[in-house]
Known about the structure:
By secondary structure, the protein is mainly β. The protein folds into two domains: about 5-135, Beta Barrel (Elongation Factor Tu (Ef-tu), domain 3); about 140-290, Sandwich (Jelly Rolls). About 5% of the residues lie in helices and about 50% in strands.
Amino acid sequence: xxxxxxxxxxxxxxxxxxxxxxxxxxxxxNIEGIYAFTGEVKTSPYSQTNGxxxxxxxxxxxxxxxxxKIYDNFYDNRQLMYRVFRLGSLGRFCYTEPDRxxxxxxxxVESVEIDQNAxxxxxxxxxxxxxPFFYAGDVEGIDLAGWIADFTFEHDFLxxxxxxxxxxxxxxxxxxxxxxVDGIGLDITIKATGNxxxxxxxLYETGEEIKIGTTSNxxxxxxxxxxxxxxxxxxKGAVQVSGGVETRINDYLDPDSQFFQxxxxxxxxxxxxxxxxxxxxxxxxxxxxxxxx
Length: 293
């Protein structure tokens, strides 16, 4: 195993442990549970024929087991590990291999075992990840419509009335997701430079859409407001932001709205409105997730 850097952060106490070639006294010898993935497949038997009927597949929790040695500064490093891996505490495991981007998974500490009688203090740490997926360290995003800067520093003024920026509008754009994982949540921001009535955003491949406002319950987005939509499981909802104040606007959602997520393959995302679509500025952000590192 080639490890450029493996870091563990106790997010409850903001304590970090970074293990790589520069970490004094602690070495990782093995990490289990980061390459493989399993699925629980549910079926039901046919009553009068052979075989089973497929029902669903779910990914269970992930168990990451880290083992290695404390070969120097045994007491201080042991206490550090006790602080970082406090029983039941929430943490984040970040893993990087050479020439690859950083990926992470959030975990809860299940157990810490340190054998001071073993050669150079053998240790083993068990981490439970309720969410079994790994996530990209960086947020990705697309602008379906927005302003592009044409003015940069350092700048030579060559003529009067230079263009500082231009509006780029595309009613649809594609996001490629070839990671084999469905259900990647989106953070969607909708702004307006004029009045927009009943704005909506949709995923072409599934026919799903999220629409704010209906004929009987219309919604108007003005230049003083923003709409933030989150489609991540456990955080789904829509809020309006005005003057720094957030207000939930789920009661404006069209009853047929679905908080769609990225599917495996091509995702064609578009936007529109009952009126004023030309005034919309739309940004979609997401973090890719993976079945393993």
